[in-house]
Write a structure and sequence with these properties.
0% strand, single chain, mainly alpha, 62 residues
Length: 62
């Protein structure tokens, strides 16, 4: 194997490795965004439940 061929092989391996790292980073960012969206939705539902419970409680007292 010549020096040029070795450099080409190293370049191909390095490119494949960087592509795999980039894919893992992108998937991690997307999953983190989904997790944040679910957390925000859960907080919104919890606040709505507390407000509705308060409204129903006040309506029953009157």
């Amino acid at each position: 194997m010549g020096a040029v061929a070795a450099v080409v092989v190293v370049g191909v391996v390095l490119t494949a490795f960087l592509a795999a790292v980039a894919a893992v980073v992108v998937v991690g960012v997307v999953l983190t965004a989904f997790l944040a969206a679910v957390a925000v939705s859960a907080v919104s539902v919890a606040i709505a439940a507390v407000v509705l419970r308060s409204l129903v409680s006040n309506a029953n007292r009157r």
